[in-house]
Amino acid sequence: MPKNVISKQVPMLEHFNTIIIGSGPSGLSAAVRATEQKLSYLLLEAEQEPASTIRSYLRGKLVMSEPRALPIRSPLPFTASLRETVLDTWEKTIIDYNLNIRYGSKVTGIHRREKWLELELADGSQVTADHMVLAIGVQGNLRQLQIPGGDVPQVQYQLDDPQAYQDETIVVIGGGDSGVENALALTGRNQIIILNRADDFSNCKESNLSQLTEARKRGALDWLLETRPQAIEVNTKGEFPITVVANTPNGIERIPCHRVIARLGALPSRPLLEGFGVGFPTDDLAALPLLSSHYESSVPGLYIIGALAGYPLIKQGINQGYEVIEYILGNPVEPADTALLRDKFASFCNDRGVDDVLEKIRKSVPLLKMLTTLQLRELVLQSNILQPEPGDIIFKRNDYSTTFFFIIEGDLDVLIDEDDIPDAKLTTGQFFGEMALVSGRRRAGTVRARTKCVLIETPRRVMQKLVDSVQSMRRVLNEVAIKWVVHVCIGLTLSEEDLNNLASHATLKSYAAGEELFHEGDQADGLYLIQSGSVTVSRMIGGREVVLFYVAAGNYVGEMSLVSGEPRYATVRAAVATEAVLIDAGRMNDIIARNPEIRSELDARYLKHLQDQEKRQQLETTDNPGSLGNQSTPSNLISFLIQQGVGEATDVLLIDESLCVRCNYCEDACADTHGGATRLDRDAGPIFANIRVPTSCRHCEHPHCMKDCPPDAIHRAPHGEVYIDDSCIGCGNCQQNCPYDVIQMAVIQDQPERSIWQILLGIQPKALPIVGGSKVAVKCDMCKDIKEGPVCVRACPVGAALRVNPEELLNYAGGSNTDSVTNEVFLTESDGN
Question: Which fold has domain 634-756+772-814?
Answer without folding.
Answer: Alpha-Beta Plaits (3.30.70)
